[in-house]
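sry for the spam today, last one i promise. struct tokens for design, 207 residues
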């Protein structure tokens, strides 16, 4: 059954109640400070595609993180084309729309016609350790060794990071935290970095 584009409070509520995984609903990913600031609606034009990729993102990446480390805080996730474009125009840390298709813009295919989705998250368990001096690369390598991510991008505040699911995973990691730049560029072998995260919990597979 095709999910209608929300045109009323009721249909928007129905979209928000769509369950993407054990712990996450679509509503968790629709809030946007940019939308709130500029009075814009952050609603997908193609709800079915947004739901499809959102389920992959949640089931394959966010649920294992949530089960292993405890509650995830969603900082920024789905953006409509209108919201993302406004964020780009106003200098609010949004890439151009075309660069964010199959990224933060879940309901558009990328230039290769492929699907993807991105969320920016904070893991409070790790944020506390990061504040105490733990290197951001510990979490980066833990994810690299355990999860089928496409891209990771780390930020200084709270060690927040973008985590992406894509149907053709790129396996790339970059950071705005020192050492800045690329950590992994699609060639790093998974499973070889345990020394970075010796005190981390063992992966818990969500049920």
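last one done:
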């Amino acid at each position: 059954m095709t999910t209608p584009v929300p045109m009323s409070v009721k249909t928007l509520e129905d979209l928000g109640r769509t369950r993407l995984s054990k712990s996450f609903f679509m509503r968790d990913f629709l809030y946007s400070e940019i939308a709130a600031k500029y009075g814009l609606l952050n609603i997908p034009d193609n709800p079915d595609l947004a739901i499809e990729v959102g389920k992959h993102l949640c089931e394959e990446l966010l649920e294992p993180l949530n089960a292993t480390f405890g509650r995830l805080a969603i900082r920024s996730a789905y953006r409509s084309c209108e919201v993302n474009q406004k964020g780009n125009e106003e200098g609010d840390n949004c890439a151009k729309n075309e660069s964010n298709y199959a990224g933060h813009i879940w309901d558009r295919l990328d230039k290769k016609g492929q699907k993807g989705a991105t969320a920016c998250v904070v893991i409070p368990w790790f944020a506390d350790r990061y504040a105490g001096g733990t290197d951001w690369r510990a979490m980066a390598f833990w994810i690299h060794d355990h999860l089928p991510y496409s891209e990771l991008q780390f930020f200084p505040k709270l060690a927040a990071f973008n985590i992406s699911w894509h149907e053709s995973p790129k396996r790339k990691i970059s950071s705005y935290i020192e050492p800045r730049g690329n950590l992994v560029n699609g060639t790093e072998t998974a499973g070889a970095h345990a020394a970075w995260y010796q005190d981390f919990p063992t992966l818990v597979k969500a049920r």
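Helices lie at 9-16, 33-38, 47-69, 81-89, 97-100, 124-131, 136-146. ok im logging off now
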